[in-house]
Specification:
The structure is a single chain. The chain contains one helix and ten strands. The N and C termini lie far apart (62 Å). The chain is 6% helix and 39% strand. By secondary structure, it is mostly beta strands. Strand 2 and strand 3 form a beta hairpin.
C-alpha cells in the first residue's frame, strides 16, 4: 500500500522548480495609471508568471503558487486591458492601450528578474 501511495505522488518535487523572485510594479499608459488589466512575464523557457493590474499597480505575480513571483532571468512582458468586462462571447471589447503590448510577438516590453524583491515600472506609449 505504501508503494502505491508513493507512486501516485510522482517523481518530481518542489526542488525541481526554477528559483523565483517577488515582483511588483506599476503600469501606466501615457503617464496615466492603467485602471485594470493583466500582465504576463514570459521567460526564455518554462512557465510564465501572471498578475492582475488594479489602479496602475500589480502587487504580485504567480508562476507555480499564488504570489510566488517570476523565475529569475530575462522576460518578455505583455499587458492586456479592455474597456469592458466579458459579458458573453459576442461582446466586442476594445483595448484602451495599443494591442502590440498584448502579444508576445509584438510587445516591446522586457525585464530582467533578479534574486530578491523586484520593482518594475512600465509606461506604455503609442
Amino acid at each position: 500500500m505504501a508503494i502505491l501511495c508513493l507512486s501516485l505522488l510522482g517523481c518530481g518535487g518542489a526542488g525541481d522548480l526554477p528559483t523565483v523572485a517577488k515582483v511588483k510594479g506599476t503600469v501606466t499608459y501615457k503617464g496615466v495609471p492603467l485602471e485594470s488589466g493583466t500582465i504576463v512575464f514570459y521567460p526564455a523557457s518554462g512557465r510564465s508568471a501572471t498578475g492582475e493590474i488594479h489602479d496602475g499597480e500589480f502587487l504580485s505575480l504567480t508562476t507555480f503558487e499564488p504570489d510566488d513571483g517570476a523565475p529569475l532571468g530575462e522576460h518578455t512582458v505583455t499587458v492586456q486591458a479592455f474597456d469592458t468586462p466579458v459579458i458573453d462571447m459576442d461582446t466586442k471589447r476594445k483595448s484602451p492601450i495599443p494591442t502590440k503590448y498584448g502579444d508576445v510577438k509584438t510587445t516591446v516590453l522586457s525585464v530582467e528578474i533578479t534574486a530578491g524583491e523586484n520593482t518594475v515600472e512600465f509606461d506604455l506609449v503609442d
